[in-house]
Amino acid sequence: MLVAELPWYDLPELRQHTDAWWRGIAKHLRLAGVERVPEQLVRGGDYASRWSSPELLLSQSCGYDVLYDAAEHIVPIATPCYAAEGCEGPRYRSFVVVRTDRSWQSFQDLRGRSLVINQVSSHSGTNALRPQAAALHREGAFFGEVVESGSHMNSLLALHRGEVDVACIDAVVLELLRRNRSEAVADLRAVACTNTALAPPYVTSMHASPQLLSQLRAALQAAVADPELAVAREALLLRDVAFFPSASYSELQEFEQAAIAVGYQELPAPLRSPLSDRND
Which of 1, 14, 90, 277 is most buried (CB neighbours < 10 A)? Predict the structure, then answer.
């Protein structure tokens, strides 16, 4: 059996809808002639380790992952379009958030404050922030401190506890939490937003055949039009999917280049070389 997982935005409160969404995709994959389609999603463990398996059928990753850390293992097949504030078609952004009991009103007011990022390999929590900070940096720094939490949820918890001053949070995460776990975003407000970028893509193994790539794209397109999946799509904020070549995610390098050009070095970055042009 092949392996499928949908680790992005998989809140416990939404797992019934994520599972329904997968069952719908799986149905359309079978109708498209794909064999060994798993009945259930895999959860738990290290999802990134599964990306290196040639048995990977479907997952979702950060755009940064297909650009750097997992470029040799996974390939984007479709970009979801989300119904959340800050999302525009297949593009999304992040919001720079602080506690409501703080007086800061603009990004400039955050100079010298402590920032929490979710992961070095995250576009939404780290890379997206670079252009604004770079434009205001002094001697390579803007924030007083940068700490890594491991996840957007951990970043929000640190913010609530007063351990840090600022977090940069994925717009889709914020909207899903507003709808399903409002206490996680209570007493927080946005003081700025980042530029848009292509949303986290659905991905498959680099070993997938051209035929399987076509079948996956056709199944996803059929699933977003399937009326039986309307409830799941609405719960997951899914409006549509769009299709771009892998190289389109190289646009994330522009966020880095804006910082490199002015000598801003404060935010950590992945170390691997970016993906080369692909013809998919």
Answer: 90
